[in-house]
Design a protein that fits this description.
The protein is of the alpha+beta class. The chain has a single domain, classed as Aminopeptidase (3-Layer(aba) Sandwich). 41% of the residues lie in helices and 25% in strands. Strands 1, 2, 3, 4, 5, 6, 7 and 8 form an 8-stranded mixed β-sheet that branches. Strand 7 and strand 8 form a beta hairpin. The two termini are 20 Å apart. Pfam families: Acetyltransf_1. It comes from Metarhizium anisopliae (strain ARSEF 549). This is GNAT family acetyltransferase. GO terms for molecular function: acyltransferase activity, transferring groups other than amino-acyl groups.
Length: 210
């Protein structure tokens, strides 16, 4: 699906970050895994601060989808594109250390720790060399199904192709089909999260090799 006319992609600026956080909360309002790991609404102030810091990372590629008529941001993505293996390994080590402690807003700290330990295990096993990693993607519910998510994924893939890096992501059941259509394939064993009363959730690791 192509990006709907009237919507365009642009780089994200620091002033956009509060809107990105709002979109993320709106897009994942009913996501049980996110709710247990970060709380119903998380900590918006901390999220804004963290994303602004991430935006300054030279490996970061933040893209926003904008409704040209209203100027409103309707979706966004965050990739990290590592142009050498050493930079990626250093970043991965830092991330793993940070994820050894769950956020204070977490409803289930255990779920946070188990999920990220599983993600990091698979990243260590499957990612070699220099990767482009999709860290986050969110589209406002009213704008879903209009090609916004696909356009954001493909923009990241174009960046990966230009730099000759593989692309990596962890897919929820809701997003898996979109990523498959963009050329990603499943790798390794899926991550099965038992969320108790919320049921079980499957996350699939996926890779795209240019």
């Amino acid at each position: 699906m192509s990006l709907q006319q009237g919507t365009s992609l642009h780089r994200v600026s620091s002033k956009d970050i509060p809107a990105l956080v709002d979109i993320h909360y709106e897009a994942f309002a009913d996501d049980a895994l996110m709710k247990l790991m970060y709380g119903s609404h998380g900590d918006a102030a901390s999220a804004v601060s963290d994303l602004r810091e991430a935006l300054e990372d030279p490996t970061a590629r933040f893209t926003k989808a904008v409704d040209n008529e209203t100027g409103d941001i309707v979706g966004w993505s965050w990739w990290n594109v590592y142009l050498d293996a050493e930079t990626h390994l250093e970043a991965a080590k830092t991330t793993e250390e940070e994820q050894k402690e769950a956020p204070k807003t977490a409803i289930s700290p255990e779920t946070f720790l188990q999920y990220h330990a599983a993600v990091n295990d698979r990243r260590r096993r499957w990612i070699t060399g220099k990767p482009g990693i999709l860290q986050a993607i969110a589209v406002r519910p009213r704008s879903q199904g209009r090609g916004v998510g696909t356009a954001l994924v493909r923009a990241g893939l174009e960046e990966a192709k230009r730099n000759g890096v593989l692309a990596w992501l962890e897919a929820s059941s809701a997003g898996h089909g979109l990523y498959e259509k963009c050329g990603f394939r499943d790798v390794g064993e899926a991550i099965e999260s038992d969320l108790g009363a919320y049921g079980k959730v499957t996350t699939v690791c996926m890779m795209y090799e240019p």
